[in-house]
């Protein structure tokens, strides 16, 4: 019996809730559905006997959920069981709305700190600021509380009251606040404005309900305010996707009516669909650039793929994530849901950009990316070659910018955040987000602020050297090179202060962004970051030079 359990544990446990050992229909032995029903009956009988005779009590819900989790290991990571208590997360993915106070948090050590406050949110109305430390929630001490637990307590139905006690990070004074939760709507367009004088810029963070309409309104407002606009950049970097229908609406802003944007094909042929633009385009002529990176996925890739395949604009940045799968939710008993991958989607040229093949697993049960040798070539409307099986390759590739180890450490340990908090309470106002600059004297203050603070780290070179030492010892070569190794180690040993100065420009930019965020919220942070944005600068350069732009589309 134990052998049977080990080999069959990944059968369709979720359907057990539906059939519960009911009698089988008469199926032909060769029919797959007969095999499913047969094994479900065996599974139900097995569980019934195990539950009845096993020496200790077995919690039914826990065992069933383990069975469901085991089954899901055979699928892709996007297929999931959603219990009733987690339906709010599913709703947020579709709508961008949730009940809460409108803040981001971070837990370090015993305490959780407010890191971002959404403009106009309940917490903003109460005057709570980034840097404030959460002392208690509804009379429950927050000391030592896990970040996930704090997050759950901050959320709740609109109209409910949350009693908070917060500590000011500078004065140490504790203040009680009564915050009334509201429905928080995370805006899919986090920023829209002009860059390089004549180029419009729209930052889209997710594809939720009505997000396409919001992108369209942002574009129309830019055009109305700047009739001489020479091009527009749609920034989909870091956009994880969302609703497929909204991707079609976004593409329709720049692509005319009745154009195929995406098609879906799956096991249930009746569900196969073609999605075409339904409206006359807002602007079919304005030069367009779409920004992507490795975190642009799903619906973001549908838009980028359609723009590329229809030769409507250029894609700039890095290759996208490569998620070519479509999910549908199915109802389950007791208000649970099954979020299941039902189809693959295909761009107008006919390519599926899914990068990982979940249908074929290696001997260890792992999955691999589609190898380059199996990627097929398709053609765009103008005959340009594009490939499937690996995300959207940009027309103009820009190497990503990586932060230095010292900058990563200063961010991770919140020293940049803490300095910005201190700066905010000692400066009642600053220049506009675009014009604000941290002075040399203020950077010196930051250096002084770091004195006696531990921001030690290992450089990648040091990590590689340690790996070499371990390998050399294992292969018994280390004794022969020990002296040279120690000499090299001494030469590579980094000086924190020197690293700080060597990466001063980068750290200064991060400080300016965090400080600006205190006065002008997320919009200010984004506006400040645009000046040194390499991908945006390249996109703007192409849009302002028609010959270079058109050359990429030939």
Number of helices: 19
Helix content: 25-40%
Quaternary form: single chain
Q: How far apart, in Å, are the first and last alpha carbons?
A: 65 Å
Mean pLDDT value:
91
The count of DSSP E runs of length 2 or more, i.e. the number of strands, is 23
Q: What global shape is seen? A: globular
Keywords: Hydrolase, Protease, Serine protease
InterPro entries: ClpP/crotonase-like_dom_sf, PDZ, PDZ_6, PDZ_sf, Peptidase_S41A, Tail-specific_protease
Protein name: S41 family peptidase
Domain PDZ: 99-169
How does this structure look, described?
Pfam families: PDZ_6, Peptidase_S41. This is S41 family peptidase. The protein has 554 residues and is an alpha+beta fold. 38% of the residues lie in helices and 20% in strands. The protein contains 19 helices and 23 strands. The strands form six sheets. Strands 3, 4, 5, 6, 7 and 8 form a six-stranded antiparallel β-sheet that branches. Mean pLDDT is 91; it is low at 1-27.
Give a quick summary of the entry.
The chain is built from 19 helices and 23 strands.
Features:
6-stranded antiparallel beta sheet, single chain, 6-stranded mixed beta sheet, PDZ_6, 19 helices, protease, globular, hydrolase, alpha+beta, 554 residues, disordered N terminus
Write the layout of secondary structure elements.
Layout: H1 2-8, H2 16-19, H3 32-53, H4 60-72, E1 80-82, H5 87-95, E2 97-100, E3 103-108, E4 111-117, H6 122-125, E5 133-137, E6 140-141, H7 147-154, E7 161-167, E8 174-180, E9 182-185, E10 189-195, E11 199-204, H8 211-225, E12 231-235, H9 244-252, E13 260-266, E14 273-276, E15 288-292, H10 299-309, E16 314-317, E17 325-331, E18 337-346, E19 356-357, E20 368-369, E21 377-379, E22 385-387, E23 396-397, H11 405-412, H12 415-426, H13 440-450, H14 460-474, H15 478-492, H16 496-502, H17 504-529, H18 534-543, H19 546-552
Parallel strand pairs: 11-12, 12-15, 15-16, 16-23
Antiparallel strand pairs: 1-18, 2-9, 3-4, 4-5, 5-6, 5-7, 7-8, 10-11, 13-14, 13-18, 17-18, 19-20, 21-22
Helix pairs in contact: 8-9, 9-10, 12-17, 14-15
Keywords: Hydrolase, Protease, Serine protease
Protein name: S41 family peptidase
Family: Belongs to the peptidase S41A family.
């Amino acid at each position: 019996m134990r052998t049977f359990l080990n080999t069959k544990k990944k059968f369709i446990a979720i359907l057990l809730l539906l059939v519960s050992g009911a009698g089988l229909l008469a199926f032909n032995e060769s029919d797959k559905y007969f095999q499913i029903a047969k094994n479900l009956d065996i599974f139900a009988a097995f569980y019934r006997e195990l539950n009845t005779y096993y020496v200790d009590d077995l919690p039914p819900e826990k065992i069933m959920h383990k069975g469901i989790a085991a089954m899901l290991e055979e699928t892709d990571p996007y297929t999931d069981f959603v219990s009733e208590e987690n339906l709010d997360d599913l709703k947020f993915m579709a709508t961008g709305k949730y009940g809460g106070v409108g803040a981001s948090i971070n837990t370090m050590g015993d305490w959780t700190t407010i890191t971002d406050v959404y403009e106009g949110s309940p917490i903003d109305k109460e005057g709570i600021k980034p840097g404030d430390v959460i002392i208690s929630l509804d009379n429950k001490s927050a000391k030592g509380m896990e970040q996930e637990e704090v997050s759950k307590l901050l959320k709740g139905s609109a109209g409910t009251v949350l009693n908070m006690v917060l500590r000011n990070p500078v004065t140490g004074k504790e203040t009680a606040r009564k915050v009334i939760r509201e429905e928080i709507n995370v805006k899919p367009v986090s920023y829209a404005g002009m860059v390089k004088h004549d180029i419009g810029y729209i930052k889209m963070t997710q594809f939720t309900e009505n997000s396409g309409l919001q992108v369209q309104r942002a574009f129309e407002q830019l055009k109305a305010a700047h009739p001489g606009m020479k091009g527009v950049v749609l920034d989909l970097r870091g956009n994880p996707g969302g609703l497929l229908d909204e991707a079609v609406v976004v593409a329709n802003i720049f692509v005319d009516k009745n154009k195929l944007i995406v098609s879906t094909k799956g096991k249930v042929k009746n569900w196969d669909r073609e999605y075409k633009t339904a409206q006359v385009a807002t602007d079919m002529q304005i030069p367009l650039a779409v920004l992507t990176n490795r975190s642009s996925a799903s619906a973001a890739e549908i838009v980028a793929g359609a723009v590329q395949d229809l030769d409507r604009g250029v894609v700039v940045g890095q290759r996208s994530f490569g998620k070519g799968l479509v999910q549908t939710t199915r109802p389950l008993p007791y208000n649970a849901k099954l979020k299941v991958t039902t189809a693959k989607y295909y761009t107008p040229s006919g390519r599926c950009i899914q990068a990982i093949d979940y249908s074929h697993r290696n001997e260890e049960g792992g999955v691999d990316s589609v190898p380059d040798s199996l990627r097929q070539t398709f053609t765009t409307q103008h005959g340009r070659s594009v490939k499937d099986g690996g995300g959207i390759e940009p027309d103009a590739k820009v190497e990503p910018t990586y932060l230095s180890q010292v900058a990563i450490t200063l961010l991770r340990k919140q020293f940049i955040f803490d300095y910005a908090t201190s700066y905010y309470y000692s400066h009642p106002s600053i220049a506009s987000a675009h014009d604000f600059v941290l002075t040399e004297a203020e950077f010196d203050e930051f250096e002084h602020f770091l004195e006696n603070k531990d921001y030690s780290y290992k450089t990648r070179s040091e990590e590689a050297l340690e790996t070499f030492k371990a390998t050399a010892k294992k292969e018994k070569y280390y004794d022969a090179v020990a002296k040279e190794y120690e000499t090299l180690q001494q030469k590579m040993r980094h000086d924190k202060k020197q690293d700080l100065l060597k990466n001063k420009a980068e750290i200064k930019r991060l400080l300016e962004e965090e400080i600006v965020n205190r006065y002008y919220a997320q919009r200010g942070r984004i506006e400040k970051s645009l000046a040194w944005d390499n991908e945006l600068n390249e996109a703007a350069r192409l849009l302002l030079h028609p010959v270079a732009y058109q050359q990429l589309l030939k």
